[in-house]
Amino acid sequence: MKEIRKIGKILNWLSSLKIAILLLILIAISCAVGTTIPQQESDQFYYEFFNKNPFLGVINGNILLLLALNHVYTSFWFLLLLTWLGISLAVCSFKRQLPMLKSALNWVDYKSTRQIAKLSIAKTIKTNNPSKSLEKLTTKLREQGWNVIEKDRRIAARKGVIGRLGPILIHLGMILLMIGATYGSLTGENIEKFLVPGRSIDLLDRNEEKRLTIELKKFKIERDSKGRAEQYRSLVTLIEPNGIAQDKEISVNYPLRYKGLTLYQADWSLAAITIQIENSPKLQIPIQSIPELGEQVWGTTIPTKSNGEDPILLTVNNELGPVSIYDNDGTKLSMLSTNKEAKEIKGSLLKVINVIPSSGLLLKRDPGVPLVYTSFAIILVGGCLSIISTKKIWALHEEDKPLIYIGGLSNRNLSGFSKELPKYISFLEA
After folding, report:
1. Is the pLDDT of residue 378 over 90?
2. Which residues share a beta bridge with 135?
C-alpha cells in the first residue's frame, strides 16, 4: 500500500503544472544558448574564442566543452530535459485529461431539484404545461446542435464534448514534436559542399555503399544591371546506384526534395582561373578567398620566372572579371578581361581565358521531419478543439407542479454561457 502511495506521489509530481512550466523555461533557455553559441565547431575554435571572451563572462572554452554547449541539441542533459517533459505530458494526459474526457462522455442524470439548484447556473421557470414545455426545449436544443437524452420528466443535454479532446491532442503533438526533433538531430545529415560544373559528390549509406550521386552540370549567377548577384541556379543530375539519372534545377528559395534529402542552393564562390602564358597550354589554377582584400575577393599567386621567383598576384571578385594583377610589392600592374587579347606582364604575354565559379550546395537529410510536420498538424487541430467549450444543461419538472428547473455548466467562459442560456429558455416562461 505504501509503495502504491509513493508511486502515486511520484506521478503527481511528474504531472505537476509547475514542473512542466519549469522544464519549458529550461528548454527555452537551452535553445537560446544553442542559438547564441556556434554549434558543431572544432574544439580548437572554442578554446581560441571563448578563452579570450568567456560566455556570460564566466564560461570559457574548457567549461563550455565540459557542459556540451558546443552541441546543445544532442547533449545528454538537453535530451534528458526533453524526455522528462515528454513523460510529464504523458502522465498528465493519462491522469487528468483522459479522465476529464471520460467524465465528459458520461451522461450525468440529475433526478432532484436540489442537484440542479447547486449548479453554477440555475433557474426556475413557471409554465402552464411543463411536459409540453420540456418537449419544446428538447426540440430547440437539438436544432441548435445539442445532444439530448430524454427520461421521465427530465432531460440532459450537452454540446462541445469534442473540445475535451483538444488538450490531449496538444500533449500528443508536443511529445511527437520532441521525438521527431530529437530523432532528426541524432540521425540527420548536414553536408555543405562547393562544386564546379562537371564535379560530383557521392552520398553513402550506413554500410558505406553509394546510395546517390549528385553531379553539377551547370551553374549560373544572375546579376542585376549594377553587377550585383540576384539569383544562383544550379542544374544537377541525380544518379541512382542502378544508373537511373534525372536532371533537376535548384535555386535560392527553391530547394530540391528527393527521397528524404533536401538540396539547397546556399551560396556561390570562385574556384579557379584559366590562363595562358605565351603559347603554353591552358592552365587551370585554383583560387582562394582573400578576406584581407575584401569580402568577395579571390586570388592566387603565380611566378613569372622559371625558377619560381618574382611572383605576381591575380585577384578577381566575380566570374565575369576583370582580373587585377599586382606585383609582389603591392603595385598594380594591369587588369585583364576574360577571353580578351593577352597583355605583357613582366616580359611575358598573359591571357585570362575564364573564371570558373563554384556552386555552394547544402544537403540536409532529416528523418524526423515527417514526425515534426505531423506533430504540428496535431497541435493545430488540438488548439482549435481546445477553443470549443463543453456545455451541459439539465432540466426537469416535478409532477403536479407548474415549474421547470433548469441548470447548466460550462468548462470555460461560464459568464458567457450564463448569457447564452436564457436564449434557449425564454419561450418557456408563461
Report:
1. yes
2. none
Helix H, strand E, coil C: the string for 297-308 is CEEEEEECCCCC
Task: Please tell me the class of the 113-160+392-428 domain.
Answer: alpha beta
What radius of gyration, in Å, describes the C-alpha atoms of the chain? Answer: 36
pLDDT-above-90 percentage for the chain: 10
The whole-number pLDDT of residue 358 equals: 92
Structural contact between residues 65 and 101, judged by C-beta atoms closer than 8 angstroms: no
Supply the DSSP string of 36-68, one letter for each residue.
HS--S--HHHHHHHHHHS-BTTTB-HHHHHHTT
Strands 261-277 and 311-316: unpaired
Structure confidence by residue, pLDDT tens digits, 71-125? 888 888 888 888 888 888 888 788 778 888 887 788 888 888 888 888 888 888 8
Nearest to 377 by CA among 85, 169, 161, 94: 169
The Cβ of residue 385 has, within 10 Å, a number of other Cβ atoms equal to 18
Q: What is the pLDDT of residue 274?
A: 92
DSSP H or E segment with residue 71: none
Q: What is the mean pLDDT of residues 27-42?
A: 85
Contacts 24+ apart (CB under 8 A), 81-85: 81/23, 81/26, 81/27, 81/30, 82/27, 82/178, 82/181, 82/182, 84/23, 85/20, 85/23, 85/24, 85/27, 85/174, 85/178
Residue 176 burial class via C-beta count within 10 angstroms: exposed 0-12, middle 13-18, buried 19 and up: buried
The whole-chain average pLDDT of the chain stands at 85
Residue closest to 264 by CA, chosen among 319, 192, 215: 192
Whole-angstrom Cα distance, residue 117 to residue 114?
5
Residues 107 and 148 sit within 8 Å (Cβ to Cβ)? no
Q: Length of the chain in residues, anyone?
A: 430
Nearest-angstrom CA–CA distance, 258 and 273: 33
Model pLDDT for residues 192-232, shown as the tens digit of each residue: 888 888 888 888 777 777 788 899 999 988 888 877 788 88
Considering all CA atoms of the chain, what is the largest pairwise distance in Å, rounded to the nearest integer?
A: 124
Could you tell me the residue ranges of all domains in the chain?
Answer: 2-101, 113-160+392-428, 189-269+361-379, 270-356
Contact 403, 125 (CB under 8 A): yes
